[in-house]
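## tool: complex_structure
## caller: assistant
## args:
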Amino acid sequence: MTYMHIGKDFTPPDVEGKVTGAARYAEDFKREGLVFARLLTSPLPSGRVVNIDASEALAMDGVLGIFTADDLPPSAPPANPALAKEFITYIGQPILAVAAESELIAENAIEKIRIDFERYPFVTDPLDSLVEGGPNAYPMGNSLVNDGPEAAAGTTASGTGVGEVKWTQDQVTAFRNGREPVGATFGEEWTVGDLEGEFAQCTTIVEEPFVTIGQPHHSLESRTGMAYWENGKCYFHGSLQSHTVGVPALAGMLGTDPGNIVFINENTGGGFGSKIFPYPIMAVTGRFAQKLNRPLQLRITREEEFYIGSARSGMQGWIKVGLKDGGKVGAVDLIVVNDAGSGGGGSGSASAEHISIMFQPSAMRYRGLALYTNTTPRGAQRGPGQNEMAAVLAPMMDKAANQAGLDRVAFRRTNAPRPDAKIGPRQGGISSSYMPEAIDKAAQMFNWEEKKNLPRRISENKVRGIGVGQGYHSAGASGYDGLIRIAPDGKIHLHTGVGNLGTYSYAAVVRAAAEVLQCNWDNCVVEHGHSDLHLPHSTYQGGSNTIFTETRSSHVAALEVVRKLKQIAAGEFGGVADDYSIADERVFLTADNSKGMSFGEAAQKAIELGGEYSGMEYPDNIAGTTQRSVQALQGTGLIGVAKDTLPKSGTTPGMAIAFVEIELDTDTGKFDILDYAGVAECGTVIHPKGLRQAMNGGGIWGFGMAAFERHVYDPQNGLPANVGLYQSKPPTYLDVPVHMNTAGIDMPDPQSPVGARGIGEPAQGCAVAALMSALTDALDGHLFNRTPVTADMIVNHIAQNGYNTGDLKTNTF
Amino acid sequence: MEHSQVNITRRRFIKGVIYSAAAAGSGTGWYLASAQSRPAGAVERLITINVNGRDRRVDVLPQETLAHTLRYKLGLTGTKLGCNRGECGACTVLINDVSQYACSLLTHTVKGRNVLTVEGLRAEDGTLHPVQAAFIEELSPACGFCTAGQVMSTVALLKQNPKPTREEARHALSGNLCRCGAYDHYLNGVMRASGQLS
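## result:
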């Protein structure tokens, strides 16, 4: 299909501000009368606050007040509270804030506060808690209970309760040693098909333990916020991935109506899952400002961002995979124990989904358990569950393919999802799949057939590794609103509640509306990032969700605009709407294009007509957020507003495949990535440069997960060892390939009007899997079964020190 | 170069950095407050620094970093603070054409030297600097928080080496972290800005 805008590169309107420094982030805003808050954070990994004596601090000149958990609505574990009191569960957890006329005064005041703590036992490794007699992260238990009797009243959707699950010493020992913990208790379990029967038909069996360590998000912009209240409204400068979908949650945190929130967030300096929805500390910023009736800035330092900025959940697990003759995956049995940190959740079921869709096993069982530790809160991080599973699974599947005498790529193609693929415990369908075509395209880009036969030994101390890996994440929803306004001056205002998290999707999705309107992009204004610009209810920015979901809502709103344009023209020139066409920002009689009017003239006419044309009336089914925006725009032009009710069924999949070639130094354990090729199976490519950004950026995240990033805690004191960027080791220019070669399959998904799906998450999953696969290939098939695989592990392996999963130890070196 | 006559402990230095961070935020109000809570010996000095071709008179504490002076006293918020501890490079500026981390540089040390920030790159007629134009063309930024630092490191590189190889470029920019992982796109921008990519 030939498009005017879809599939074409464009310059998003915010790029210039980013290269000139004009783009403003939350910390760049000031306000007359601004005061400053600082946090007092917990020195303990586990305990409770017995008493706070702030009298000396409050008596200091310039100190304006203190804000504690008592100033917030009560919260129950496992909800992650904005400020802790009864349940301190990690070092660095905020306990109180002090506001003063300057940050220095606030900091000095913090030092004058005396707190009596009660110290509790703590734990940093889930399996240490799981064993009988082991310490629990919370006084009442160690495990996420999804059907607990008490709903969590906090600000994160982390679960509903805390229970206690224990395994016997024998079960934990078996699990640590890579065996199935027979008879163990799990929090979640599902089975599809005849597991035992399918295993009985398999001729190749691989059984392995694995461990993946979580890592902090370390968004480069910390979660600094500034808020002030005027006339009952809260003006909040914050940093979220999403925009309008977050406003009701923020309003709830601040105890006000969503209509009283003006959220300002034109640019977001990274989130990667940690800023999808409002996070707890925003409650402190907003409510403390209200309490003092002053504009208040709460600046979050890099160290504090490590503590409260969220992190990926780790896994400790066991898997058994069976292949039938010919390479079809017959059965998979999977156990995942997730490290939920403090108040987080597990993503084990999502890990199972990765296997389910990527290899389409005839039978599968998943058993999972999420255990709390006294480490930082865990939350969504780029493909939570799927991507860490992709990482450890790829070398195991390589092992299975090799044992069966199969080409690793052909094996994946044999099992790749087709359009009739099934996924997960309910074995639901998917909207489309071109994964076999993507595998073929990526293999060709990488030149797999030639490279797989290259000698692995390059020199005395250099070996080559070739790897392949796949990534998956669900990538789309429906039911959100689109909103467009044509002004009398002819400008086309494309309103979107999509947040600007750095992917340019906020602009790419509204080009689906420009496509319907067949208008000049230069005449469009993308309205985003500020509640006062009157934005519609849009989906959250996470989970590769935006492209599919919001091109649909943009499309339906644009159809409404076209309908109204034609009706207005028919009223002016006679006939019926179907007699009219649009082109060149005019609506005209198809049979005689001299009878028509410009979009601007039609907008003026819409104002005169009122009713639905100018937004005086609007559909009943649009969300409250959108209704308020339409009300604010009433009478200012031609309004097109609609809820996406287009047909949707099954899971919308985002998928990707990648190939990696490395050169590994056997003396140092260091490797260089010589070649990287990745192909996105994300339907139609709507923004080629944006797609490459997503694939390349995801690739870098994959390399970080595979080889560098992890939580490290001192198990004796519960102290984190990598609060800074330097210790956390996100990849730098020197850790990644000089060139990255990425593309999209560019074949349409039938459930999207422009054929597009998202790709942010799978872009990481395929890369981490491919690099893990290459590392195993370079080391004669050795499985580390662990992420990250660091240089010291490689050297130890080569020196035959025997290190692999390290008894499933986690959150450590 | 002026030297402080007092011994500054690490704790006092860190406090001073926070102290200076608050300055522009509250404007006059902050100065009134600071007079009452200033660390002993932390005497402000009115100095002149040249920023983006203009002499700027500014009150500076002995332990004040350039990043804070730029952001909170001169309003040049294009220079970002990603870590404030010399790890990320988001605050990179040029001092006499050499790239440096503004978070790790005391403002007093740049007296008499030329400070160039991302806001100073445009020509007087508003034309973008070639590096800025190239970064737009290659869609180099992702979230944009590190971009000013990437731009400034590239400007410094091209002053020293107008036609760097991609390998040379990645070494020159290796002090600039991009958490989004847009390295390939920044390197494309470097190649385009140096006329090696059409």
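## assistant note: The CA atoms of residues 102 and 179 of chain B lie 19 Å apart. Chain B touches chain A through 71 residues (CB under 8 Å). Handing back to user.
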